[in-house]
């Protein structure tokens, strides 16, 4: 096993990148390694961690803007924000239960490099939408910056957005600047139990279509629901459909009552107040429903209006459990005992619906290699390779992490 490289300042990082470039070797770019299980891994890549790049460098609460070095733990950023009643509005995903790491130990740079966002994305957008500036060093050893305290493009490219979801294959982010939002003063959740999937998605769409700013809309099948309901009073051994509202207590009382009236035909709605509501959504954010080590886990993005049909087709062909987030725009699929983790059927069906499927975890019994990221069509692959050549022509940074030759 190769020694871990731990740069402290930009100059160190540049030297390490240039040294690898000169030697014809490559680097595995890491924060704290909390998402190391996702994507391809190669022992040929020397591990380089950004954990010493840890500091909040700018925080202006009145402007709702924060800058931090890329290796700053997310938990540290959240502690800083909490004192001013502000938060990361996109509700990042925490893989600590799945990969058995410390909660909040992931870094702010890796959060944006992977662009994983939680249930609140439905209302507030993804992590990428709140990234307004980056400083980075590319595979040529060149420093660059983009954006800052306001959105802007550089030389015709929105480099800030380009860094999001690039998984460290184009450049190593050294600092990020984030647009924040005030933390909602209160929240509640409405539960419906035992709905069939198509009916549940209809209920979620009805709630989302109201002017009441639904910030969470999920349907968990019976097996997935129970781990997320730990600590919740009104628990039934059935599938659960959950609708979150966030606002002032007075506004929540009005909004929740209106939604209960609207959805009364779907069944009895249980009102879950703030402490239990927060616990439920924390379990959702930590993917508590997907921690069976034998299961392969897929994260599937698709059209909410085609989600049920796609899920039904998948379940006919693959032994699977499926739950829905973002009102049906995101499917979490767990499979077991399938040679290719269900890859060929899942990806074919989801591609027909205009979506894409990412393999988050192959399961302990995986016996066949599967590309973790959804295959690109020739045009997009050509564009991806072109960007790689532009930023990292020698293939120093995370080569093969997402696709062969990239």
Question: How would you describe this protein?
Answer:
It is a single chain. The chain has 406 residues and is α+β, with helices and mostly antiparallel strands. The chain folds into 3 domains: 214 residues, Uridine Diphospho-n-acetylenolpyruvylglucosamine Reductase, domain 3, CATH 3.30.465; 100 residues, Alpha-Beta Plaits, CATH 3.30.70; 70 residues, Alpha-Beta Plaits, CATH 3.30.70.240. The protein contains 13 helices and 17 strands. The strands form 5 sheets. It has a 5-stranded antiparallel beta sheet. Helix 11 packs antiparallel against helix 12. The radius of gyration is 21 Å and the shape is globular. 47% of the residues are buried. About 2% of the residues have low confidence.
Number of helices: 13
Strand arrangement across the biggest beta sheet? 3-4-8-6-7
Shape: globular
Based on secondary structure, the structural category is alpha+beta
| Helical fraction | 25-40%
Domain unit count: 3
Radius of gyration (CA) equals 21 Å
């Amino acid at each position: 096993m190769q020694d871990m490289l731990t740069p402290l300042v930009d100059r160190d990082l540049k030297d390490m990148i240039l040294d690898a470039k000169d030697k014809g070797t490559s680097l595995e770019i890491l924060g704290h390694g909390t998402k190391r299980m996702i994507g391809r891994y190669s022992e040929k890549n020397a591990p380089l961690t950004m954990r010493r790049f840890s500091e909040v460098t700018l925080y202006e609460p009145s402007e709702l803007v924060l800058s931090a070095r890329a290796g700053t733990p997310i938990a540290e950023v959240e502690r800083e924000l909490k004192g001013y009643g502000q938060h990361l509005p996109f509700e990042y995903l925490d893989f600590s239960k799945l990969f058995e790491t410390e909660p909040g130990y992931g870094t702010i740079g890796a959060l944006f490099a992977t662009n994983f966002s939680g249930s609140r994305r439905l209302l507030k957008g993804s992590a990428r939408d709140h990234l307004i500036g980056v400083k980075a060093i590319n595979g040529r050893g060149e420093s660059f910056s983009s954006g800052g305290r306001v959105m802007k493009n550089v030389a015709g490219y929105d480099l800030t957005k380009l860094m999001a979801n690039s998984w460290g294959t184009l450049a190593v982010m050294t600092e990020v600047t984030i647009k924040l939002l005030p933390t909602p003063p209160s929240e509640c959740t409405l539960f419906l139990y035992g709905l069939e999937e198509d009916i549940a998605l209809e209920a979620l769409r009805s709630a989302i279509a109201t002017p009441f700013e639904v910030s969470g809309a999920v349907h968990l099948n019976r097996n997935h629901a129970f781990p997320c309901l730990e600590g919740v009073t009104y628990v039934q051994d059935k599938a659960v459909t959950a609708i979150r509202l966030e606002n002032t207590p007075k506004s929540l009382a009005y909004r929740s009552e209106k939604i209960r009236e609207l959805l009364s035909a779907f069944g009895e709605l249980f009102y879950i107040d703030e402490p239990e509501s927060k616990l439920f959504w924390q379990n959702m954010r930590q993917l508590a429903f997907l921690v069976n080590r034998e299961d392969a886990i897929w994260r599937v993005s698709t059209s909410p209006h085609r989600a049920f049909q796609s899920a039904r087709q998948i379940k006919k062909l693959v032994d699977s459990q499926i739950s829905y987030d973002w009102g049906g725009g995101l499917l979490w699929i767990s499979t077991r005992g399938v040679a290719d983790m269900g890859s060929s059927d899942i990806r074919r069906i989801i591609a027909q619906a205009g979506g894409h499927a990412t393999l988050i975890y192959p399961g302990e019994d995986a016996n066949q290699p599967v590309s973790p990221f959804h295959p690109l069509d020739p045009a997009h692959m050509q564009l991806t390779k072109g960007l790689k050549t532009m930023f990292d022509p020698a293939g120093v940074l995370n080569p093969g992490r997402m696709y062969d030759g990239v």
